[in-house]
Amino acid sequence: MSKFYYINDVTKQQCGPFEPERLQQLGIRRETMVWQSGMPDWMKAEDVEALSFLFDPKASVPRPEKVEPIEINEPDLSRPINLDSGFKSEQKEGQNSIPPMPKNWMTESVVLSILCCSPISVVGIYNASKVEKLYSEGRYAESLRTSDLARNWALLGILFLPVCYMIFFFFNMLAVSLG
């Protein structure tokens, strides 16, 4: 039986893999984004047929596949054990990987709005607030573009205060020279 990954609704972090029965214990909601090997993209849990039993009390819980017992042999102690090999990912070559969530630039935009009194940074805050939502919906490219927009508006917010000071200085000098 395939194991599922899910995006935690609170932390927005990828969790798993878990058996479908374990997802039931974890309290997966209908809107929770889930994925398993073989799925083209993340989907809402309610749209995955294998998880229908989580939300429909009439649906039956899937039964685990019959597991054949394995024979355990004595370890070969004549060969050294390589402890540095690490763990191998379950992902096979050619499968789509889940990209990491891009930086949302929320902290920078809020700090600039407060410290620099920059109304331009508000646009950065707006874009920063959309990054996590787009990522959790599986719209990775769009979340990356929105992250770039949030960064650009935050950088423009940095320039806002010096530009205002230069304009003020220019008009002040103009007023002094005319008056």
The strands making up the biggest β-sheet line up spatially as 2-1-3-4
Task: Report the helical percentage.
Answer: 25-40%
Strand content: 5-15%
Main sheet overview: 4 strands, antiparallel
As residue ranges, the low-confidence spans are 83-95
How many beta-strand runs? 4
Order of helices and strands: EEHEEHHH
Rounded to an integer in angstroms, the radius of gyration calculated over CA atoms is 26 Å
Structural class by secondary-structure content: alpha+beta
Outline of this structure?
With 179 residues, this protein is of the alpha+beta class. The chain is 40% helix and 8% strand.
Description:
The radius of gyration is 26 Å and the shape is rod-shaped. The termini are far apart. By secondary structure, the chain is α+β, with helices and mostly antiparallel strands. The protein is 40% helix and 8% strand. Helix 2 (106-115) runs antiparallel to helix 3, helix 2 runs parallel beside helix 4 (140-178) and helix 3 (121-136) runs antiparallel to helix 4.
Summary keywords:
single chain; about 180 residues; alpha+beta; 4-stranded antiparallel beta sheet; about 40% helix; rod-shaped
Write the layout of secondary structure elements.
Layout: E1 4-7, E2 14-18, H1 20-25, E3 33-36, E4 43-44, H2 106-115, H3 121-136, H4 140-178
Antiparallel strand pairs: 1-2, 1-3, 3-4
Helix pairs in contact: 2-3, 2-4, 3-4
